[in-house]
Each structure stands twice: as C-alpha cells, then as structure tokens.
UniProtKB/TrEMBL annotation:
<dbReference type="Pfam" id="PF04389">
    <property type="entry name" value="Peptidase_M28"/>
</dbReference>
<keyword id="KW-0479">Metal-binding</keyword>
<dbReference type="GO" id="GO:0004177">
    <property type="term" value="F:aminopeptidase activity"/>
</dbReference>
<keyword id="KW-0732">Signal</keyword>
<keyword id="KW-0031">Aminopeptidase</keyword>
<dbReference type="InterPro" id="IPR046450">
    <property type="entry name" value="PA_dom_sf"/>
</dbReference>
<keyword id="KW-0378">Hydrolase</keyword>
<dbReference type="InterPro" id="IPR007484">
    <property type="entry name" value="Peptidase_M28"/>
</dbReference>
<dbReference type="GO" id="GO:0006508">
    <property type="term" value="P:proteolysis"/>
</dbReference>
<dbReference type="GO" id="GO:0046872">
    <property type="term" value="F:metal ion binding"/>
</dbReference>
<dbReference type="InterPro" id="IPR045175">
    <property type="entry name" value="M28_fam"/>
</dbReference>
<feature type="domain" description="Peptidase M28">
    <location>
        <begin position="286"/>
        <end position="505"/>
    </location>
</feature>
<keyword id="KW-0645">Protease</keyword>
<keyword id="KW-0862">Zinc</keyword>
<protein>
    <submittedName>
        <fullName>M28 family peptidase</fullName>
    </submittedName>
</protein>
<dbReference type="GO" id="GO:0008235">
    <property type="term" value="F:metalloexopeptidase activity"/>
</dbReference>
<feature type="signal peptide">
    <location>
        <begin position="1"/>
        <end position="18"/>
    </location>
</feature>
Amino acid sequence: MRLPLIALAAGLALQAHAQQPVVAEAPLRAHLSFLADDLLEGRGTGQRGGALTVRYLETQAAIIGLKPLAGGGYRQPVKAEGTKLLPGSFTRFNADNGKVLTPANGTEIVYGTMSGKEDITIDAPLVFVGYGAVAPEENWDDYKGVDMKGKILVMMVNDPQPTAEEPNRFAGKAYTYYGRWMYKYEEAVRQGAAGALLIHTTPSASYAWSVPATSFAHERFHLAGSGNPIEGWLQEDTARQLFAASGFDLDTLRAAAERRDFRPVDLKVKLHAEVKSKIRQIEEFNVAGIVPGTDPKLKAEAVVYSAHWDHLGIDENKQGDNIWNGAIDNGSGVAALLAMAQAAVQHPAKRTQVFLWPAGEETGFLGSSAYIRNPAWPLNKTTADLNLDSMNFVGKTHDIGVAGAERSSLLEASAVVAKKMGLKLAPAVPDLSGAYFRADHFPFAKAGVPAFNVGSAVFSGDGYFDFVSDQDKNRARLVAFKNDYHQPSDEYHADWDLSGMVQQAQFTLNLGYEVANAPKMQTWKAGDAFGKVKR
C-alpha cells in the first residue's frame, strides 16, 4: 500500500502546483516581438497601427478565453480630438521696451493648441506664476487672486522645494501631482488663461528636452472638452533670454517663487502667436476582457490589470527611421498582460479579474481617463488596479519595485507575495521624477481606487535593483535605455533576456490573486489624499 500512497501524494502535489497560474515566456516574447514590429507602425493613436493593435488584442483576448466586458464586446470607445501643428505657425515675443524674440520651433520652443480651432491668433501678456500651484493643504497659492483671464502663464515644472524649516512641504524631495505638466495645464484652464508655457530643465522635468519636442512634433490628442488655446514648453535658455529682454532675471524670480508670499509677476512682454492646426475627431478603443470570479459574493468585485497599448506611431514627414516602435514603452506591458491572461483563464480567483489595455496613454491618459468616466466595472467594486508600463528587459532580480504601493494596503499584500516568491521589496526611495503620476494607474488612484505601477523602479534606471547576475552591466543597460525612451530606437531585440520581464509579470499576477482572494477590498493608508475620494 505504501507505493500507491506515495504516488497519490505526488499526484496531489502536482495537482496543487498545476492550480497556480504560471506566466510563460514563449507567448510573452511572441506578443512583444509582434507588437513592436514595424508592421504595427508604432501603434499610434488615430493611426492605422493603432487600429491593427486593437484588432490584434481583441482577437487574442478571444483566443485566450477572456470574456467580453465592454458593452458586450472587448472594445470600449474613447472619443478624442487630434491636433497637429501645421507649417506657417509661429510665435513672437514683443517686450514693452521694443525688444523682439522669435524662438525657433522645436529647438527653443514647442507649442500647440487644445482649443479645437484650426486657426488662432493670440496677442496676450506674459505673467510668471512661479510653480502655478494652488494647494490648500499646503497653504500655497501662486495666483493670489490675480485675474489671469486672457493671459499667458509662464511657470516652472516640479514642486516648491523643501527648506530647512519645512523639509516635508510638497512631499519633501519627492514629486507631487502639483509638479506635473498635466496639472499645470489643467490649472491654467481653471484660471481662465489664454495659455501656458512651461520652463524646461532636465532635472525639474526628469527628462530631456527631446521628450516634449517629440511629443509636440506629433499629433496630440485630448478628450473632448475645453483646453488651452495655446500651451507648450520653453527651453531654459530661451526663457532666460525672454526674461532678460524686459529686465528680469530668471534665477531671481525662481528664488522668489519658492516663498509662500510670491505673487504673479507681469513680465512686460506680449506673445503674438499665429497657430494653424489640423483638427480631427477620432474614436479609439480600450480593449478589456474578464476572468469571472468564482465566489458567489466576491465575484461582484474585481481587480484590474492594465497596460496601455499605444505608442507614438509613425511620422510620414520624418526622414530615416520614422517608426516609434515602443517595444519597452509599452509593448512589454501589453505582451505581459496577454501572457498573464492566458495563465489566469485556467485558474479563476474568488473575485473577477479585469484585463484592460487602455488607449492613448502617451497623449495624456485618454483611455484610462475614459474608462474612469464610464467604468466597465463599478469603481466602488474595484479593489485595485495593478499597472504595467516599460518593463524589465534586462534580467532576473532578487527584488521587485513596488513604488506607490506604500499609499495603500497593497504594500502589505506585495510583501506577502514577494516572500512567497523568495523576493525582497526594493528599498523605498523618494519619487523624484513624479513616476506615480505618469502611468495609467493614476486615473484609478484619482478616482479612489488603490493602484500603482508594479515594478516601475526597474525602468527608472536609478541603479538600486539587485540583479541575479551581471549587476553593473545590467544597471548600465537600464540607464542607457533613457536614450531610447520616446525615440524610434525603442525596438525589440531577439537576444533580450526576458526572464526578468516574466518574473515581473508573474509577481503582478500573483499579487492580483492575493488581492482577488483576500477577505476584504484593498484600502488606502490613513491620511492619503486619494483615500478621501468617494467612488
């Protein structure tokens, strides 16, 4: 009888192992190599490559066995407006003392409109508004009640910096949403301004001038609604010359803007801009499918996994390589979600699992914002969103990044999963680049759903991950990827070691099961701003 018992025990062990969803590398690699191929033309919003990507995703969702979610199908419409700056547009700055500056578009200034109008002529005074922040909880208001209607706001990116007396103001050395370019433009609209120009520096923006230059060179999109008549960025040297033209020193005004008593400064300069744009209305699509839950009560609640499918597309007017393939950003996340879904359909959890591929992340969270406006699953029944964006293409690690999880109970859940997988949680570091506000989990967080970008620290390239092998070499490769970020050179390479990407996907899926099978929904930590949002 001993042999049959041993065999039975071994069989049960194998069965138990088979019950665990396992992310396989082969489908992940196959999806990634296809999604990043020139055939998909960079998966551009409003372009043929985007349409091909959506068709591919809904086909794969059906093959995998995901159930339709969005209105009986896999597609959720995202209506947007596209704007492309046309030749013949120009800007000129006229100082009250007669000096004139005409910065070159692309190298000294980038700009466009979100007004929905094809032809705009603007003559408006420039006002320096410091950081352009209105933060009641910080007792901070850069506008001081000054009427900004019809004016062009010039402002710095990032947050007011900590001081010796207030080391923790605006989260100390970390970034807050008030520091993000999106917030700056949104606040300009709320102030009734004619537009906003942000002063670029690589340290304050956390990326080089090439990033906004590339973005504004492409067609830009936004959800239907009001936007700034003109918005853009000034290269730092251009801003310095502009301020000096009317007798102001940029550094002096920057220093003044670090104080609460700062007041808006009339720069004694007027902007004359003639903006000619091609405007079109488009309909893009999020793709979503589900693995229904098994628990009679808990299946009404869901965990969401998300990864944006879009990148920057193709530029027919560019010479040479004109396809922004977006292999890492974010073919990697899209492929990982497909591989995760393939594993998940075989092993349903107690709660429902939603696999969501949002559109238009590169143009300002269009898809995820549209999902939040019209959620395919009730937000008050959504326990968490686990997002994947720009994944680890270097190799396996001894730890995993969970930056942003500390805002909610997802940190404790992450620790449980990491321990089971023999991993450590990567050490917490200040969010110096505003990473928490730069991926598709953020609209979920703003809507009150606990959320973070899983493993995002890998992409930061800050060099604190503990790789299983080739530590210095692998860290150097991550740092080097910053040169490929939002460039046509972000391409798939068949010799990539994807073991780290599979590891990251497996951790995310395991975390999803941890929260999907938990007795209670995930919650924000006491005092976190997002926990105050009613959903």
